[in-house]
Write a structure and sequence with these properties.
By secondary structure, this protein is an all-alpha fold. It has 24 helices and six strands. The strands form three sheets. Strands 1-2 form a two-stranded antiparallel ribbon. It has a two-stranded antiparallel ribbon with strand order 3-4. A two-stranded antiparallel ribbon has the order 5-6. A hairpin with a 2-residue loop joins β5 and β6. α20 runs antiparallel to α21. The protein starts with 18 loop residues before the first helix and ends in a 13-residue tail after the last helix.
Length: about 575
């Protein structure tokens, strides 16, 4: 068990608002009736900038739409009293997420309970749309209940008897949305579901995620208490739960995530207030201090971060600074120390930001930067955590319970390479997932997705790891996406971009394929400016910590200072 602790050292941040933080901030202010302090026009502009032409919303501007971002964006607008424009377009996009059983995060991906919850609530509660295929959806929902009574991420996970308070929340709230459409409840054994949730309460009063977790936290407590309230039940030790929550108030009057963890953040405030409301407790006495704390998290460009901007570091920015060689030796040590502190007590993987769930992609970046080097115990724990994350289809998702995608699966393989063993991961099943993503024109990020260069590179890196000779396939893929004027394009031979070019060169060098250094140099010159390396030659202002890192690594490779590049995935 990892003891709760806030990261020491000094991480680096990106200076940008975060969508999840913004949703948590606004929902918390709505709960304590202090929305009048929010800058509604700036927030609306920030949220609308995430809207795509397909009607969905993305977690970052310019990224594809997904159910997670669409839910948080539309719910934030709803809390602000802003109508979602062209909500029928959003409803139509949500229908594209249905995989024949339930809803996925992206069109073509496999359904999971996270995505089904987000999709159903957005479709029914925001768009006033209707489910088109209720019968298979109910069969899928019915299959979420485990033998122990709790709900799991999918029917395949339920057959393993792996229940989780988060999965229970998403299932129960999806059922509540269906009831608002006039549809019946899923055929769950509700007394056993309530009993399993109540059994997750610890003697201190807080709840844990599941039997596999050791430390209770506010996130699990909110998911459990809200689920129980929706099922018209309460914790067995209700007063002790209220007292435990009150004991997590920090010096500002906001909250910390775990006992012994000294960092107040927006998620802890959100979960604490949400739990108290689910318990039927008053929250008016918290309003002024919670609202004052959240006001310190507001960003000038609209939206919020998780802590004050001057201390809101994240793992990707911190790892990028280390990998890109932008820090002094002392700063590098401080950044690595901070990254190593970004672990949940119940999840040895590395979080994107403290207080969030451990993510495969961030764990890969952290290890690549040098976190836990020469530390066998935490590295072994990371391997065990990774094996527990593997989905029934053999692939990996961003975090526990998420549907598989190639970015996460390739990140998992990169972690295995750095750990030096399989760590209990089923490589045969992983190979099966990669094979399922094979399309006529190459590989997609998930079985029903569209093929692309990056998905192909990620797939081939996985296949190489399990023993396939992919050199010829890689050479053909690279040739098909090599742009004559320099760099590589993710689609065809259109506009090259930094991420595709980085991953292309990284895999080529890893496989011992020749790299056209002159061609690479031309591209690097096109994306370089005084600010650093941009993501695209068409937008030189688009420079951030991650693009600067990848650009510096490529520059070092082009100049002969590096012979290999770390395997880093983003999208």
């Amino acid at each position: 068990m990892t003891a709760p602790r806030f990261p020491g050292g000094q991480g680096l941040g990106n200076g940008q608002p975060d969508l999840w933080c913004t949703y948590a901030a606004i929902r918390s202010l709505a709960w304590v009736e202090r929305l009048d302090g929010a800058d509604a026009p700036a927030l609306q502009a920030y949220i609308q900038s995430r809207r795509n032409r397909d009607g969905g919303f993305a977690w970052s501007k310019g990224m594809p739409s997904d159910a997670w971002a669409t839910f948080y964006c539309t719910e934030t607008l709803h809390d602000l009293g802003v109508a979602v424009e062209r909500r029928e377009d959003t409803a139509e996009w949500i229908h594209t997420l249905f995989d024949g059983d339930a809803y996925a995060m992206c069109p073509g991906q496999t359904a999971d309970v996270w995505a089904s919850h987000y999709a159903l609530r957005t479709l029914i509660e925001v768009c006033q749309g209707r489910v088109r295929a209720a019968e298979p959806l109910y069969t899928w929902l019915d299959g979420l209940q485990c033998a122990n009574g709790g709900l799991s991420w999918s029917a395949d996970f339920a057959r393993r008897d792996l229940a989780d308070t988060r999965a229970c929340f998403y299932g129960v709230m999806a059922a509540r949305a269906l009831a608002r459409q006039g549809l019946p409840a899923p055929r769950w054994d509700v007394p056993r579901l309530v009993g399993w949730l109540q059994a997750q309460q610890q003697d201190c009063g807080g709840f844990r995620f599941s039997e596999a977790a050791d430390v209770p936290c506010l996130w699990a407590t909110y998911r459990a208490t809200a689920s129980l309230a929706a099922l018209q039940a309460q914790p067995l030790q209700r007063s002790r739960c209220v007292a435990w929550i009150d004991g997590l108030r920090g010096p500002t009057g906001a909250f910390v995530r775990w006992a012994g963890y000294d960092g107040e953040d927006v998620w802890a405030a959100f979960c604490a207030v949400g739990s108290l409301k689910a318990l039927g407790e008053p929250v008016a006495h918290l309003a002024d201090k919670v609202a004052a704390y959240i006001a310190t998290l507001a960003m000038p460009q609209g939206g919020y971060t998780y802590r004050r901007a001057d201390s809101a570091a994240d793992v990707l920015s911190s790892a990028a600074a280390v990998l890109g060689g932008a820090l002094t030796a002392a700063q590098q040590a401080a950044a690595l120390g901070w990254i190593e502190g970004c672990q949940m007590p119940n999840e040895p993987g590395i979080m994107y930001m403290p207080g969030r769930g451990a993510e495969v992609r961030c764990t890969n970046w952290g290890l690549a930067a040098g976190a836990f080097a020469g530390q066998p115990r935490p590295r072994r724990a990371i391997g065990q955590w990774l094996a527990s994350l593997q989905n029934p289809d053999g692939g990996f998702g961003f975090w526990e319970g998420r549907g598989s995608d190639m970015v996460s699966t390739a990140s998992a393989v990169s972690i295995l390479r750095q750990l030096g063993d399989a760590s209990g991961v089923d490589l045969k099943a992983l190979e099966g997932y990669v094979s399922s993503c094979r399309q006529a024109q190459g590989y997609a990020s998930f079985p029903g997705g569209d093929s692309s260069l990056r998905a192909g590179l990620q797939a081939l890196s996985c296949l190489a790891h399990v023993g396939h000779d992919v050199r010829e396939a890689a050479a053909q893929l690279l040739a098909a996406h090599k742009v004559r004027q320099g760099g590589f394009a993710n689609q065809g031979q259109r506009i090259p971009d930094l991420l595709s070019t980085y991953q292309a060169v990284a895999l080529a060098s890893d496989l011992g394929l020749p790299v056209d250094l002159a061609h690479l140099g031309v591209f690097l010159d096109k994306v370089h400016s005084e600010a650093g390396h941009a993501w695209s030659p068409l937008f030189l202002q688009g420079v951030d910590a991650l693009s600067a890192c990848l650009g510096r690594l490529l520059q070092a490779f082009a100049s002969g200072q590096r012979q290999q590049l770390p395997s880093l995935q983003l999208s």
